[in-house]
Each structure stands twice: as structure tokens, then as C-alpha cells.
Amino acid sequence: MGRVIFDITTSLDGFVAGANDSPDLPMGENGMRLFEWYFSANQTSRAPQDIQEEIREQAAQTVGVIVSGRRTYNHAHGWNGEHPLHVPVYVVTHDPPQLDQAFNGAFFTDLDSAIKQAQITAGDKHIALNSPNIARQCLQAGLLDELSLHYVPVLLGKGAPPFEYIGIEPVELEIASVSQAPGVIHLTFRVPK
Q: At what angle do helices 132-141 and 111-122 cross, to 10 degrees?
């Protein structure tokens, strides 16, 4: 069975989107700056670029299902029916929408059901969480196995934080890996069970 992983890019001051994020501005003000490392093609330094390419390839090969929250789904406009990784997206929401287009995924009204179905669907592949709220809920429920954080050396000043520790006791994490590439530092932590 694959691991449940929260994989997200964040600013150094701890924001995963800029201020005033909305469906019209999904990453908020200046938020796309967080992904310059992911989409850049730095030809002057092959080793760091290899790390970035490896991260992209690894996601494409190892992720079997994405579990998202409704806000992320709305901001991404439902990925126009198909997530860029071409895997099913399971959206946890209290109010499933009526769809007017095909959607590679499903809607769940509780987190446990979404994670259980994701594990069945993903098989040996991983379940990627792409919503801070869903990651926090998984952490609270003991369902989160790993955090993969990509820190970009920018201070956004305000925006959406990756963690709001309401109701969470301190959690000690184990460092699994650290690497860097132009414009980003990659940190992976295991969540002890």
C-alpha cells in the first residue's frame, strides 16, 4: 500500500498561495512565484535541474490518487475534468457539486472514506494530498505518512498557510531527505506512527 503524502511548495515565510487567492486568481497575488522552480529550464546547471526533473518524474510515476479539498478543487476549476498527473482526484466536501463536465475523480463527504477508497484505487502507488486543510485533517487522524515541502526563497508577506495547527499537539517528524536546486530547497519528512 502506498504512502499518504502532503506535497506542497511554500514560501520561506510559510504561505502556499499569495494573498487574495480565488478561482479567478488561484495562487493569489504573486503566488505563481512559488512555482518558477518547477517550470524553469535552467540549462547552466544540470545537476539541480536533474533533481527537479526527478521530482516531476517521480510524481508522475508514483502517485496513484490525489485527495483534495473543495476549495482547492474550486480554485483549480476542477482541473477542467483531468488533473495534470492524469490520476483520479478524490475531493472531500460537505457539498458535492452537480457536474456539467466529465471528471476523473469522485466526491466524498468524509475524509476516512476518501482515504480508504484512494488506497484501494492507488494500490501500491501513493496518495498525494494537495490541500492544506486535508493534510491537517489527515495529520490529526494519524493518516499522514510523509511531508514533502519545497521551500522557495521568497517572502510573500501574507497568504494561505500550509498548516493551521488548530487542535494539533506538537508532532515530531523524522528528516528523510534534503536537497536543493536553483530557487528551491526540497525537504522530506516522515511522520512517525
A: 90
pLDDT tens by residue, 83-120? 888 899 999 999 998 887 789 999 999 999 999 999 99
All three cell numbers of 176: 528523510
Count Cβ neighbours within 10 Å for each residue of 131-148 and write b for 16 or more, e otherwise.
bbbbbbbbbbeebbbbbb
Residue whose C-alpha is closest to residue 80's, from 59, 114, 104: 104
How many residues belong to the chain? 193
**Structure letter (DSSP) for residue 36:** H
Per-residue pLDDT at 102: 85
Task: Look up cell 511531508; give the residue.
Answer: 147
Query: At 163, which amino acid appears?
Result: F
Contact (CB, 8 A) for 9 and 150: yes
Rounded to whole angstroms, the Cα distance separating 134 from 6 reads 9
Q: For residue 173, give every residue at least 6 positions away whose Cβ sits within 8 Å of its Cβ, in sequence order, or none.
A: 147, 189, 190, 191, 192
* DSSP states of 62-119: HEEEEEEEHHHHHHTGGGGGS-TT-S-EEEE-SSPPPPSS--SEEEESSHHHHHHHHH
